[in-house]
Each structure stands twice: as C-alpha cells, then as structure tokens.
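Possible regression after last week's pipeline update?

I re-ran a chain I had predicted before the update to compare outputs. Posting the input and the new output here so someone can diff against the archived version. Not blocking, just want to make sure nothing changed silently.
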Amino acid sequence: MAIGVEEIPEEYMEMGDKEVEIRIWEAKERLGPSLLILGHHYQRDSVIKFADQRGDSLKLSQFAASSRTAEYIVFCGVHFMAESADILSRPDQKVILPSMKAGCSLADMVTLEDLEGCWEDLRSLGIEVVPISYINSSAEVKAFCGREGGAVCTSSNAAAVIKWAMEMGKKVLFVPDEHLGRNTGYSLGIGLSEMVTWDPREPLGGLEPQEIARAKLILWKGFCSVHMKFSVEDIIKVRERFPGIKVIVHPECRHEVFRMADEHGSTERIARRVKEGPPGSSFAIGTEINLVKRLADENKDKIVLSLSERAALCPSMYRIDPPHLLWVLDNLLEGRVVNRVMVPEDVAEWARVGLKKMLDIQGG
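New output (post-update):
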C-alpha cells in the first residue's frame, strides 16, 4: 500500500544535473542520521552514489531494520523491495519510494487472486503443496505463503528453502519466476520431467491432472525481462572472442543459459566472485547492466563485461532518478512524507512469518 502519493513537480525534471546533485548532498547533510538512503545493485550510478548502503533487496531491508537512528528510509529500488523494508523495519520508521512507477514486471506476474485460484484448483485434485514465494513478489503473495505453511526465498537461498519444503513429503509450488525455480530444482537433482509450469491464464494452469500428480515441483509461469535477454548464442560468441573467460549468470536466466554458463549466483555472489578473482582474470556477466558496469569500474585489473551485446537494463529500476530523489528529500525537509510505502499489518504479519521461516532455514 502507498500513502501520500504525489507526482513530481515539473520544475525538478527541468533542473540541471549539477544543481540536483548539490541539493541532494545538502539535504542529506541537513537530515543527518534520521535519513537512510538504500540503493539496489541495479540502480544507476547517478543515484547509487548517494546511497548509505547498497546491495540486494533482502540485504538492504535487513540493514534498514538494524538502523537505530533512521526515521526515514528512502529505498532506491522497486516497489516490492520497499514493501519488504517496511515489513522488516520498526513501526516508527517510514519507508519511501522516490517514484511509485518503479514496479517490477516479474512481481506483477503473480497476483494474490491468481495464486488463490491455483491453490483451490490443486486442493480440488487432492494435491497438497508447500508454497514458496521468491522475494520478487508482492507483500500479499509473501503473506499467503507464510499463512499456508510456506516460506519466502531469495536467489541465494532458494535451494535451501526448496529442499526444506520437499522434506515435508509434499509437492512444491514455486512463484513467480519459473526459471529460478527450474534451475534451482535441477541443481537439487529434480529431473526436468518432474517439473511442470502453471500458467495462471489457462484452466488448471494448462496442465492435465496426471501431469500435476507426477510432478515434484510446480513452477509459476513468470520471468524477469532483464535476464531473459541472455542466450546460448551470447555465451558462444563471448567465448570465441575471449578464450578462457568465465561466464557467470543469474539463476533467473533460461535453463539452457544456466547450464552452459561456468557459474551462477545472486547479485551478491556475482559481485563477490568478481572482486575475489585474481588480477588479469576475465568475466562475462549475465545480469543487469548497471551492476556489470559498476563491477568493471571497480575492478580495473580484470576484464568485466556484459554477457550480451544488447543492454540488459531494468526499465522499472530506471524510473528512480536524481530529480525524484531530491524531490522526496525536499519534502522531508519541509516535514512532509510523500510516496510512503506502508504494508497493512494483517498482511505484514503473515509476510514476516514467511520471511522468518526463510531466515530460520538459511541459519540452519
């Protein structure tokens, strides 16, 4: 839920870049420790430089919750990330998203209504499943999983969470990224024939009852538009150009790309792998271009390039820009909060259950 939503005045979009930058630094100084700016790895450099902490969505939300002084948390990411920060933060903290147009097409591919319909269809067949929601989903979807005995997961701990779910002796329903689910299941030894894809636009997900009965893992038909841009042809080309280069891809990529790559991992793991690489090593990275460019800039003793020649840019993340950041900070200086993201407590309570289960599994 968003409250105090307003459109940015045109005057901010007409300002020069230098004026915007100077005013953001001044606003940060005036707001002091009451302000915490979080920047996701996929954010553009002109925004990330103002971040007090950068990382993936869960790391940032946990960082916000651990802050003792921050009253205002400005999340330079997308909507579901700001929701997670609000769910995990203290009641006295206010989470702000600079632009409410910064959504996530992947998260939008599973709605609570469609998920409940799938749940009822499976129950009508007498099939019991454990629901697992990727963190790239709405608070309502996370809450559903928490309420129905499931959990939330990230790309880095998806294997541990799916393994935990399967140990219950039930099938696993994984939403909303089918590729992360398939790649993780494959890594756990689940055969491709033991996984089916549920299409919420089709009756019974477009599946036959016997297909569902045979499956161990039911995957929601959803995808990340950024990671769908990488192909097997991209890997072949980069290996021809740079013999011996390490190809590392995000597990949201297509299965054939995942299997052909040398390594795979979350944004945090990709960044760590590049930083720990010896001088002179080379990497072709299959993930969002802003992170790849930043890794190249910060690791000039190595070759770091995008796996694809096509720019894999997250258009939703790009809706956050310096003028929007300045605008929300100016409002804070005037004692006003705009674009606050606030999850209703009945939803937040069950979403926290799903998130806590994930952390318990990860810790175990």
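Follow-up from reviewer: compared with the archived run. The first helix runs from residue 10 to 13. Marking as no regression found.
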